Amino acid sequence: MADETKLKIVVFGAFGAGKSTLIKTLDPLSKHIEANCAGGTTTVALDFGRIQNNGCNIHIYGTPGQERFEFAREIIGRGMDGAILLVDVTSPMDDFTRHLSDSLHEAKVPFVVFLNKCDGSGANPGQFNGQFGSSELQVVSAKDRRQAKDALLRFAGTLTPRPNGHSHA
Ligand SMILES: Nc1nc2c(ncn2[C@@H]2O[C@H](COP(=O)(O)OP(=O)(O)OP(=O)(O)O)[C@@H](O)[C@H]2O)c(=O)[nH]1
Ligand SMILES: [Mg+2]
């Protein structure tokens, strides 16, 4: 359809923050390139999911959280319209999450912080207040479809979609 638009949103966050879980919840048909690791799986390339909202095709890319995959994050992030920084609120703030936040600020990419695992034992979202400058914070569980979708659409509504067919390169 000629009047369709699209958005590229990329999900960043530390190892095990819940990036792949978020994308699986948002799009049950999403694709994931993962390897087995202690107690579960880890992303070794990317995640990719899509959702449609009012004629806008939202493409959601997940990145690997292991630090050695910086090159993959750089490639996946090219041409993004906005980013989600996912933080595990059952753990304290870590240097890698700080690095991701600083990089997004430096690149002037609009981003929202999802304070994830708010359903988990020991969840402490309050510890992150004031840690991410002016970026909005949203408390979610990546396993909860309603919360995940509401938070994503709220953020997408703050971005400017581009016409379908226009390259993200
Ligand atoms: N309780 C709870 N557990 C979660 C939530 N989101 C993710 N998890 C769990 O956290 C673990 C890691 O989730 P993943 O989605 O693989 O994390 P990831 O950020 O993609 O990890 P990497 O790809 O290795 O960086 C899994 O055991 C998930 O089930 C949540 O909202 N609540
Ligand atoms: Mg992953």
Q: In this structure, how is the largest beta sheet organized?
A: 8 strands, mixed
Please name the fourth-level CATH homologous superfamily: P-loop containing nucleotide triphosphate hydrolases
- CATH topology heading: Rossmann fold
CATH class: Alpha Beta
Low-confidence stretches: none
Structural class: alpha/beta
Helix content: 10-25%
Tell me the β content. 25-35%
Would you report the number of β strands? 8
Distance between the termini: 22 Å
Radius of gyration, taken over Cα atoms and rounded to an integer in Å: 15 Å
H-E order = EHEEEHEHEEHE
Provide the residue-averaged pLDDT. Answer: 95
Q: How many separate domains?
A: 1
Structural shape: globular
Specify the number of helices.
4
Architecture (CATH level 2) name = 3-Layer(aba) Sandwich
Provide the list of bound ligands, each named once. guanosine-5'-triphosphate, magnesium ion
General description of the model:
The structure is a single chain. With 169 residues, the protein is of the alpha/beta class. The chain has one domain (5-158): Rossmann fold, CATH 3.40.50.300. It is 24% helix and 33% strand. The protein contains four helices and eight strands; from the N terminus they run βαβββαβαββαβ. It has helices at 19-26, 70-77, 95-106, 145-156; strands at 5-13, 31-37, 40-53, 56-62, 82-88, 111-116, 137-139, 162-163. Strands 1, 2, 3, 4, 5, 6, 7 and 8 form an eight-stranded mixed sheet that branches. It is globular and about 45 Å long. Bound molecules: guanosine-5'-triphosphate and magnesium ion (MG). Residues 13, 15-21, 40-43, 64-65, 116-117, 119-120, 141-143 line the site of guanosine-5'-triphosphate.
